[in-house]
Amino acid sequence: MQYLGHFLSFVGPAYAIGFLALCFWWRWWLLVPAGIVAAVLAKIEYASVNASDGAGAALGIILVIFAMIGAASGFIASGVVLIGRTTRLQALRAVYVLPVVFILGFGSYFAVTWTQQKTREARYAPPSAACLDNLHPARIADVDIAIPIAPGIFLYGEGMNDDHYILWSNPDARAFCGEADGGNATLKSVVFMLDGSPSRREMELKRPFCSRPHPEYPWAEMACHLRLTLFRTSLSE
């Protein structure tokens, strides 16, 4: 909580300055040019800060981002006030619009960040236990085979190059399970890449497949040990 307070006190002034710079332009012929100038200046400033080096670069980028969000919120607030003046809607008076847009605009950064985090977590969430533990039916060259979700298996479908499944990748494993269990998995080749992905080896080997011996799969012992191998073979049509 203390960290959040320090963060808000750090970015709050930048947001407020950006908001105040554009929230009182209550003439269309003033607001539009002011918005264009602010957008150009923001782009230049962001490019300048983004190109800089040093420990303060990240902090500078954060400040510029919040200043840009504040300016965008101020621009929207002025536009809503102008609409309210044109339509004579009491609910769109400046006294109501400015504080509401100020709060919503400031919270938009955190709402977007939270949504992106939850989306990322959902995308990379582990497959279900049934997906990980069961064998999944597929066909290759008119032959029925059963495939486990295991490290080292790379599947190519019958489509273009994008039609493939890396079974040590959570999103690909879930997608393959859904297609295979629906009876629609037709493959062009099955590739065993026992070196896997070195940067993600530890995560790959935590799969349930590697938690017990698999004498029925000759490649399993190599796939489930932390040693780099250069073995690669393929079953294809």
Describe this structure in words.
α1 crosses α3 (57-87). The longest helix is centred in the first third of the chain and has 31 residues, at 57-87. Strands 1, 2, 3, 4, 5 and 6 form a six-stranded mixed sheet that branches. The chain has eight helices and six strands. With 237 residues, it is of the alpha+beta class.
Layout of SSEs?
Layout: H1 2-22, H2 28-51, H3 57-87, H4 94-123, H5 129-133, E1 136-140, E2 143-147, E3 153-157, E4 164-166, H6 170-181, E5 186-193, H7 201-204, H8 220-223, E6 232-236
Parallel strand pairs: 1-5
Antiparallel strand pairs: 1-2, 3-4, 3-5, 5-6
Helix pairs in contact: 1-3, 2-3, 3-4
Q: Output the structural class.
A: alpha+beta
Label the overall shape: elongated
Percentage of residues assigned to helices: 55-70%
**H-E order:** HHHHHEEEEHEHHE
The number of E-state strands comes to 6
**Low-pLDDT stretches:** 228-233
Give the percentage of residues in beta strands: 5-15%
* pLDDT averaged residue by residue: 83
Could you give the distance between the termini?
59 Å
